[in-house]
Every structure is written in structure tokens, then in C-alpha cells.
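Box 3.1 A note on notation
Throughout this textbook, protein chains are presented in two layers. The first layer is the amino acid sequence; the second is a C-alpha cell string describing backbone geometry. Keep the layers aligned when reading.
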Amino acid sequence: MVGTGAAIVLLAVGAEVVSQESRRNGVTLHEYFDPAWAGASSDGVGPARESVNQRPGEPPGLSLEAGRDELILTGDGPLADVPIEQPHGALDPRTGANRLDDQTDRVDELSYFAQFDPSVIPYKRQVVQNRVVRSASGDYTASLSSNRERPVAIEGTRVHRDEDTFWGSFLVRAEPGALHPIPSVSPDQRLLRVESEPAAALRFVRDQADNFYVASDYAGLIRVNVQIAAPRFYFDGELGKDIGWNDFPSGLVVPLSEEVRAVATRVMGKLGVSRRQTPHAALMDLVEYFRDFEGRPLPASARTGDLFETIALGKFGVCRHRSLAFVIIAQTLGIPTRYVYNEAHAFVEVYWPGESWRRIDLGGAAEDVNMRQDGQRRIHDGARNDTLPKPPAYLSELERIMGQDSPGDDASPGGDQAGDQQIADGDRQGTAGEQAHGQAGETQALPSEHDLAPEAIEITAPVAEIDDARRPITIRIISADQQVLRGRAIEVRGELAANDGTPLANRSVRVLLGPVGASSGAAAMVLGTATTGQDGHFLGQFDIARTVSIGRWALIAVFDGDENDRPAATAASGIAR
């Protein structure tokens, strides 16, 4: 039995099915493809990369007919044949101004309109805002600091080794010379290839917050397809710890007013966050704190005067509340941070020195996010290596999201599917050509607990340990093989350390496989054990039995604790097909 102090932590550690495609009821959810890697970055800085031509892939169609549930982008905002909710503000970066409100309860359902393939649900960058102001009446509002634009080049079909590629397809009701905002997947995305119907001269620009726009001299309805390359760091990159406060570029933080800074400083003091910490430590504390919010009504008795202070200290609110409050504190610290939203979700992005912008989800999505789509769409594998803190409230939300994801459902409302741990039959690999082109086999049945091997144990849910004087411990899975096959071995790397960062050497870690959401009463099979080195890291090769059913599983690492250290556990959950 795992000790009662074991904490189950869901990590987005992914593994790739050898068929390289995930399908559900005939709908492709995600297809891994192998872009040929290309050379130097678009701004001419950074190390040169080996470069070859990319395999082009299949662009979307160029029909001028709106697809089912497809948005039409107009000068007055997007239109659709179903209602478009705008809980986070207007869907035009130039006019959208998101005011911090007191409607902090979680909503039942919102619609998300998929415009990229693979889809980045629910993280489409529809509107990005980089400035927060406080009015004389105490209202906090996020907006764009400047409409100043700069041109965006079409760079050709070469992809960097550290980039993922996407196709965006937009139906635009064009007005000659007008700038029409279009959604994006990353602030640092590059445009590789553009097609339009009818053929027209197009130009693209971006503003100070990296919102993207398209303009044409054409008048009327036009289909614009854009192939995009985006740095993988934006989705789940590791944030370097050796960063100082002076490393942040001065021009990326829009100055806050003295009134905002005064309230934010007061809140930071109560949270124990300050510039006396390293930037990495401060950011991790903020992520952990804001991911622990709860979407529930704000009682009148809780209102202390300043709404931002009330929401931040009371941990009230859904995605837009926690994201806007996060931006205020992070900008006060001096970390460049932006508020990002679309019709269904809000999140933040931070700039990290030595890298670039990094997306951070703080949770708080609707109970159900319905992906509206005009065709079959894959799901991008962003957040597969999200190693940011995951407090209990955030874990509960992830488990709820995973529980909604079953065959025949719409895509997961909380994020990208390809963070999933996937297991395939070693005898069903197909030919090398099939793998390279992402041809999939049949979807197999999901497992049940009756499919488990005889050697099974229970994973207990975490409980409070008020009287436990032992040192709290953190265990995490750093990576797992990108190919996980029945009848083959999986390589698992992880780390065991005290909460103060001290590595635990020569400790035994058990690695298990069990149903997703493994908790009290859920069984898991033991794959084997690994021993930590002097740096607290462990590495092991573990056989996946042929008797394991293709379906949904969780990869679990467990430290049982000892007389000095508490037990701990971590689980990388996902879909096995």
C-alpha cells in the first residue's frame, strides 16, 4: 500500500503510437508527422540548425462556403450559425477590454470554434492584452497597450527542429485595406505558406502583443489558409532556473499605475511572493497559488473593497479572474505577462529570458467546452511535458476533464489530447511508410480493471497529514518513451527530491501502470522498481506485458517513504489505443 501521504500528480508525459495517428469513431484527433527540419530562426539570431525542405502535407480546402459551425471573420467581429459567447471580452484585440468582474462561479458550457489543424483547444490566441489599468471607481481592465503594427513575412516551407506546424483556415469578409484580426497559436509563430480563394494579394501584420491581422485590397468573402510554424517551447518548455531579475528586457512590461502596484504589493506580501525570491521561484509560487482557485460565487461578505484584492486573496474565480489577477501580480514583480482569451477560455503567457514566450494555463475552464468544428481535426500535443505545479484543485479539474473524454465525445475541454500516454500493440506497427505518413489502425476497446495482471495494488488518494513530522517529498516523471508498445519496454526518467530541492539519493521508486484517475480502490500493476542516483534522478526500462489492453491508462511512480521522508506519488495519465 502507498502511504496515506502520497500525492497523485497528473503530468502530461506523452508517448506516440507507432501508427502515429489517434482516431475516435473515424475522426482523427492527432496525427504526428515528421516535418523535415530547417535552418536559422526568422530573426537571424540563435544557433544555426540543420535544414532541409519540409514535406508539405495536405492544406485545408479553399471553399468559400462556410463549414458546419465555422466562424466568419468580419469588421464587426466573428459570426457563426450558433451563438458565440464572449465571457472574457470582445473578440477583437483593438476593441476588447476585459473588465475584472465579480461573476466568479463556473459556467456549465461554452463553445470553442476550432480554426487550426491540429486544434489547440482551448488555447487559441484570439485576443492578447498586455496592459492593466485601474479606474477611479476601482475597476480593473485589461486591454492592448498600442495598436502599432509591424509586418509579418511569409518565410517559405522550412521548419525548425524545435517547431510544430499547423494549418489555419479563416473565412474573412474582407474590406479593402482594412486589418482583420485572425487567431494565432503562438506569439512567435512564423508564416510558412499562404493560399487564398479567390487569389488575392494579402499582407499580414502583428501588433505589440503579437495579435495577428490580415489585410487585402479585395472586397468580399475570401478564404485564407495559412501554414504556421510555432516554437515548441511556447506550449510546454522548461523554464530555466538560473534567471535573474535583471535578465528580463525592460520594454516588455507595460508600466502599472501606482494605485495598481500598491494593491498588488499588498497582495504579494500576504502571499509571500517578492523579488527577494528568484524569478523562477516566484513564478512557480504564483502558478501553484492561482491554479488552486475555485470557481464559486463570490459572497457579498467576502468583498473587502478592492475586487482584485478580494478575488486574489479569497481564491475566487474561473479562468478570466485568475488569469487577470495573475497578470497584475506578475507584472508588478517585473515578469512580462499577457492576458490571452478566446470565446471559451482565458490563460496567460509569460516571457522567459533566454527563451521566449511560454503559455501557462491556470485552469478554471467551463464544466464542458464544446468544440465546434467544420471538419475532422487533430488535437495538438501541447502541454505534454507540463512540469509546472499542480495543486489539488487543478488536479481535480484535470481528472474531471479526462473523465469527460470518451469515444464519441467532443475533444477534451481542458487541453490538448496528445499529452496522453499511449500504448499500442507491438505487432501492429505497420510499415515504415505507414508510420511516416500517419496511417492508423483500428481503435481498440478501452480497458477495464478486469484486464489487469494478477499482481495489483491500490493507490490511495492524498489525505491531510497534520501530525506527520517527516519531510515532505516531491516526485515527478520527467520523460517517458515516445513509443510505448505492448510486448516492448518503456523507458521512464524521473526525479525524487525534498520540497526544498534537496535530492534523495539511493531511494527505491516503484513504477506502475493503472487506470486513469487511479485513486482509492483503483488497481494498478507493478512494472518494476528503479533506484535514484546522487542527483535524485531515476531511470528504468520496464516491460509492457502483452496482456495489457489497448486503452486508457496512467503511468505511476511511487516512493513509499521512510522514517525521515513522507511518501509521494506521481501519475502521467493518458489514452492508450
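The first helix runs from residue 233 to 236. The two ends are 29 Å apart (CA to CA).
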